[in-house]
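User: Predict the full complex structure for these chains.
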Amino acid sequence: MFPLIFRFILGLFSLMLAAGCSSGTTSSGGNTGGRVSPTYQGPSETAYCSASVSYSSPITISGTAQYVRREPYSSGATGGLGSSSTSDPSYPATAKPIRYAEVRVTDASGNVSQCAETNASGAFSFTLPNNGSNYTVSINSRADNSYVKASVLGAPESNTFYSLTTSVTATTSTNIGTLTAPANGTTLGAAFHILDRIVDANDYLRAQVGTCSFTGCSSFTVAPKVTAYWEKGYNPNGYFGSSSGLSFYLPSYSRLFILGGVNGDTESSDTDHFDPSVILHEYGHFLEDVVFKTDSPGGSHNGNKVIDPRLAWSEGWGNFFQAAVLYGAAATPYYTDTTGNVDGTTSLIFRTNLETAAIGSDYPNYSGEGNFREFSVTRMLWDAIDSNGDTQFTATDGVSGKFPEIWAALTKSTYGLKDSTFAFRNVGHVHLAQKWLETYNGGSDWTTIRNVERHTASTADYAQYVTTGACAAVSITPATVSGDTGSLSTSDLFRNNDFYHLKISSAGSNTITLEYSDADASGTEADIDLYVYNSTARFGVASDMIGYSRQQPDGSAASSQSETVTASFAAGDYLINVNVYTGGSLGGAVNYSLKLNGSTLCQANLVPP
Amino acid sequence: MSGKFGTALMFVGLMALAWVSYEPSATRSPASLGPSVKAKSFALSKGDVLKHTKKLRGPLSAKVALRGAKPEEPGDTFVLVGEILSESNLSEVTYEFNLPADVELINGVVKGKIQNIVANEPREIELTLKQNAFDNKQIHLVASGSKGGMIFADSAQFNTLLEEQFRTSQKELLESTEQNAPRYKVFH
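Assistant: Here is the predicted structure of the two-chain assembly.
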């Protein structure tokens, strides 16, 4: 046997060498098409052209810029992405103005001679010296102004924007007509479509919360800069070693990656550059990351499953936000994602009604389960703003036009999602924040829309804040759940788990104990375990665990059991998970208590009741 | 040093540190991440290399894979297998292969319906094809279904000549992403 110290040194030495190999940014060879990583910083983006130049005796050049976008279509269970032609008789494309985009004018040597921007109609106008020289006019896929701050670039490895260009000769004032970015061929229209949907999002927020009347609510002007990476035929999931089509947002980097096709194909493969639902959904993730705050662990979601409430909140918010931007308050909203287009093979890759829950569409089966389902979160938020009064579970939606309350709950630094005392943020925190608005700040009563979606108006079922004190034991009843194989990955997070938010104020060793006993001291004894997670807290992920204890009970329902985790804690937020082990006989209800260093942990308030 | 060498060293390091972590002990620390004391242990997962959102995907997944030898020259026949898997029971799934020009169907059905899909039980569709061209051709499969008012699908692509190259490229790019990920986590 090697001494422990030798093993440790060997491991550390090897890791240091490996770290040396991977310090900074590295490329793994020439087979990645020049791609390195979604986090790769890349070369600096060319400075935005913003300084207008004055010329004596100038000429004026004017024109209009537009892009063409394919339109998603659907009829019943069929649908897809339409034509690239605006005159197609069945599924015509639409020409739209390129709004608020950078206009860069360069001379024959590439020097910038003038800067301008398109307006809301896509029109632009600028002056040049009357010298008979040739200039290149570029309408670029980016904007940095009071309407929108966004760059649509090809890849982090190049950080280059897309340009719609033409040439002019500076001899007389002239209108150069309409420049068009097409939806086929170069598919340049896709880059401008992505930019335009980000304009839509900013326009929506300005209209809704340009002035936010609630205390501490941020009035919206324009969102911070976002970068959207897109390349025709490129699938960003390649960064993660997969060929499955993927658009995603990279938290902390303000980067969207929009699916441009697969292995060069855009006609029969999944693309998202003409799917407004996907673009706006991902931009919604950017907003929660940069404008308010998210604790989503990320991960897969199929739209019909009990999932981590932080993920359910984050994805539900994204689904809602796209609907809010795309649909009027009286409309029936959808989330629509297409694959391919009519020039190849096309179909709906996902489409669902966001107003009405049905069995099989993230329908909440139990009171409180809605907090754990993404489309239930989406529908609840939609009910807060729509003008329809749908009825479900004997409740009727009686709320409308309350986007400002949603925004206030998300952006407030005190008793809102940006409150630094919050952690493991999920829709329960949003409910807490909204209830504070209702009680103290003129907000409305959301009881009906919570009941329509079976939401718990607090964090009671996930990330309940706890502090030491005196309180009664808590009960949990093991449940038989379809698809549960006894593993953590199939454990029902709502029915067979409880979660508590523990704040450790100073670093040190701590002992967390779970004590439990059979509720009626008879029959088969249930087996519940204790897991303690760090602030990342991806369920079942070992590297996020501070420790765990999963002893088998002694088999006597009359005796109490305990699980103990002793570990060194840094100051911060921790998630305590009480998990029903379902790999054996389930047993009946148990009563349990959690203790921190011998003191009982009890529910406490993050927000005044 | 190459990325692969660095990865190998990383692996050696992790194994050695894991060796430390899993030192058998007569008095097991309750907080350790040591072996489970359950009769039936259950695995802890590793998680993604980089935290990121994921696009909504329905319960269906489609794959296309080669069965046997790939076509080397015009006139070669080859066998493709489409695999359709669902995370939930579905009464019916519609599938369709899109065959490009120069790829000829020899045997099999390119478009059809599969009834009574059982969760997590893959269903296969086999096609025998002939490639009548020298260059790479892309074959696509789309599988579609619906449940509870949700409509969903998945698509997959197979490249007759370049499939291995694309997969190698993806693997190398994943390694590059791992090497450059700022929050690369050690798996205990």
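Confidence is low (pLDDT under 50) at residues 1-36, 184-188 of chain B.
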